[in-house]
Amino acid sequence: MRVLLALGGNAMTNAAGRARPEDQIAAAAVAAEAVADLIAEGFDVVLTHGNGPQVGNLLVKNEIAAAVVPPVPLDWCGAQTQATLGFVLMDALDAALAARAVERPTATVVTRALVAADDPGFDHPTKPIGRYLSRAEAALLVDHGETWEDRGEKGWRRVVASPEPIEILDARAAGTLVDAGFVVIANGGGGIPVVREPDGTLRGVEAVIDKDLGAALLGVALRVDALIIATDVPNVVVGFGTASARPLNRVSRAELRDLAAQGEFAAGSMGPKVEALLRFVGHGGRHAAICALDDIVKAAHGDAGTVVVAEADSHT
Q1: Which of 68, 89, 93, 127 has minimal CB crowding within 10 Å?
Q2: Span 227-240, average pLDDT
Q3: Is 9 considered catalytic here?
Q4: One of 187, 211, 285, 305 is an active-site residue; which one?
Q5: 4 touches 276 (CB < 8 A)
Q6: Which of 14, 121, 127, 282 is catalytic?
Q7: 132 Cβ partners below 8 Å, 6+ apart?
Q8: Average pLDDT for the chain
């Protein structure tokens, strides 16, 4: 059975959210233990991850150095964090697998995701990234071509496009490695956003792709059996923050789609994760789940977390 496991970018920081190199190495070691348990059970695993805190660090360096060197564009930031986090995760996985006497090679694929050049997000960027700056600090970055908005008392914040991913261009390379027995890390941060020019060439763009939607697209491309999104909660909750709050366990795609249409899942938190599950199962996936990191082995079997299945007779 082949599983695509998606780790949040915050899974690569410490409990307080710090993302120093030592914090990320320690967090990767914790995540690798759970992933190694899944591999030891005989699953073929493709691993993807978020990169928000890591890109955030690069943006701060951009801001500090903007008067000296041009800022590194977001597509470069995505490529850098894919490679760096891949290296850290590979080291952690190699150690965790060796401790279990499991011989599986690891590999990282720096992965591009195709988006449409005419995606409406490019005309009206709305995705906030990075930290707040003063007007004078933001003005220097505006001079470098970035889009910043006045957010009142908090200051100015950068906004970028968040286009819909169309195709994971390097999925074939990742699949070839999986077929050869590798544990593959791919499509970090949703993929490096690129557009196709009229002459067929590719060009990186300043954008952020939702990592969960990118994971669903990669899972479909690789024809994995299950998509598991590991987060910091054991289940999706209906009625979150109310007296009638309840966890969702096993649920059909139709039921989950209805709940999403009713506005149960916030766009900035659970919404994209739920949509990713719906898309994956809707395109032929056996099942998909949102669960805590400690529960990924059970979730891969469909026995933990919020599990979405195609059967009409499933229940919450």
Answers
A1: 68
A2: 90
A3: yes
A4: 211
A5: no
A6: 127
A7: 151, 154, 155, 156, 157
A8: 91
